[in-house]
Fold this sequence. Notes:
Cytochrome_b561_oxidase, iron, mainly alpha, Cyt_b561_bac/Ni-Hgenase, binds protoporphyrin IX containing FE, cell membrane, Fumarate Reductase Cytochrome B subunit, elongated, disordered N terminus
Amino acid sequence: MSVSSQNLSQAAFEQAPNEGSNRPIWLVPALHWMMAALIITAFIIGKNMEDLPRDQRLSVLGWHILVGLSVLGLFLPRIIAVIANSRIATAKTGRVQDKANFAAWIMQGILYVLMLAIPLTGLTAMTTIGRNFPVLGLFSLPNFANNHQLHEVMEGIHGTMATVMIILAGLHGVAALWHHFVLKDDVLRRYLPGKG
Ligand code: HEM
Ligand code: HEM
C-alpha cells in the first residue's frame, strides 16, 4: 500500500477523535458491538428458519422478529450517540470533524441505511399477512393489510438486503482488523474497552 493510500485509509476511521484519549464516548462502541451481535444473530436465525417444521418455525420466527426489532429500537439512540460524540469532539478540539475518507464514510452510511431498512421491510412483510402475528406470547404485530404480493416482495427485498449487509459488514470488519494488525493504529482499539 502506498504512503498516501495508507494515510487515506488511516484517516477513514478517524471520524470523531477526542483530543487526548482519541476515544469516542463509551456509548458509541457499546451500541456498535451490541447491534453487531444482534444483527448477526438475526441473520443466522433468518437463514435457518425456512426449513423448520411449521410449529417450530413460528416460535423461531418470533425470536427472529424480537432480535430484529431490538436492532430497530436501538437505531435512534445510536444515531443520537454518534452525533453527540461528534459534537463533543468538535467542542474539545475546536474544529469540525471532517469525513476524511469518502469510501469509509459511504460504507458506514450504507450500513446505517440497511440497519433501518431491513427491520422495516421485515415489519412490512409481517403486517401484510392478513392477521395479527403473536410474537412469543409477548405482544402481537398488528395487521395492516392482506396483501400477499406486497408481503412476498418485502420478504424478498428483506432477505437480499440482509445478505448484502452481512457482506459489507464483513468487509468493514476486515478493514478494521487490517488497521489493527497491519497498520497498527488505534482505529479498532478506540472501539474496545481499556485505556489509551
Ligand atoms: C453487523 C456488523 C457491523 C455493522 C452493522 C457495523 C457498522 C458500523 C458503523 C455504522 C460504524 C460507524 C460508527 C458507529 O456507528 O459506531 C462502525 C464503526 C466501526 N466499526 Fe463496525 N460494524 C459491524 C461490525 C464490525 C466488526 C466485526 C468490527 C471489527 C472487527 C467493526 C469495527 C468497527 C470500528 C473499529 C469502527 C470505528 C470506525 C471509526 O471510528 O470511524 N465493526 N461500524
Ligand atoms: C437487522 C435485523 C434483521 C436481519 C439481519 C434479518 C435477516 C433475515 C434473513 C437473513 C432472513 C432469511 C431470508 C432468506 O433466506 O431468504 C429473514 C427472513 C425474514 N425476516 Fe428478517 N431480519 C431482521 C429483522 C426482521 C424483523 C424486525 C422482522 C419482522 C418484524 C423480520 C421478518 C422476517 C420475515 C417475515 C422473514 C421471512 C421468513 C420466511 O421466509 O419464513 N426480520 N430475515
